[in-house]
Amino acid sequence: MNCYVCHQKGDTTPAVAICVLCGMALCSDHLIREELPVWKDVHAGMGASRRKLPEAMPRIVCAACHSALHQD
Ligand SMILES: [Zn+2]
Ligand SMILES: [Zn+2]
Questions:
Q1: Per-residue pLDDT for 68 more than 90?
Q2: Shortest CA distance to 60 belongs to which of 23, 35, 32, 28?
Q3: Neighbours of ion ligand 1 (CB under 5 A)
Q4: What are residue 48's phi and psi, to 5 degrees?
């Protein structure tokens, strides 16, 4: 599979990743790697609180999905 963004520009670049949201194939120039924090619910006595775990979860998205995710 070739990079969809490059394909739209008339280039043929082998894809190295897939956007997890829209499924677009992406080359290394067009992928965006995000780190999502992982939360764990901790039940202590009566209340519950959330604790951020040290390891973030990586995911690969395309530029279009990245801007859609980060709009206000
Ligand atoms: Zn590309
Ligand atoms: Zn996408």
A1: yes
A2: 32
A3: 3, 5-6, 13, 27, 30
A4: -120, 140
Q: Is 90 exceeded by the pLDDT of residue 46?
A: no
Angle at the Cα of 4 (from 68 to 1), degrees rounded to 5?
Answer: 130
- Which ligand lies nearest the alpha carbon of 30? 1
Ligand nearest to the CA of 15: 1
Domain count, the chain: 1
Cα–ligand 1 centroid distance for 22 (angstroms): 15
Q: How confident is the model at residue 15 (pLDDT cuts 50, 70, 90)?
A: very high
Quote the ligand 2 centre to 32 CA distance (angstroms): 10
Per-residue confidence band for 13, with pLDDT thresholds at 50, 70 and 90: very high
Measured CA to CA, the distance from residue 20 to residue 7 in angstroms comes to: 19
CA 72 to CA 67: how far, in whole Å?
10
